[in-house]
Amino acid sequence: MRIARLGFARDVCNRVLFMDQGRVLARTTPEHFFSRPEHPRARKFLADVLFPWQGTPDASPRGTAPC
């Protein structure tokens, strides 16, 4: 399922699958994905989407983010 509301996905999903151009770049738990994304593209995505005013994601998976 594709989830546009990332805060909702973080709270209710038990796995995150992050894809870019048809390739799976991350397959992990929401806690790990949102707090410690490993792939550079995932880190950039989170920074751009969740924290555009900061440029980098907060270390907290429950950080304030616009939804």
TrEMBL record:
Domain of life: Bacteria
Database matches in Gene3D superfamilies: P-loop containing nucleotide triphosphate hydrolases (3.40.50.300)
SUPFAM superfamilies from the UniProt entry: P-loop containing nucleoside triphosphate hydrolases
Name the record gives this protein: ABC transporter ATP-binding protein
Organism of derivation: Cystobacter ferrugineus
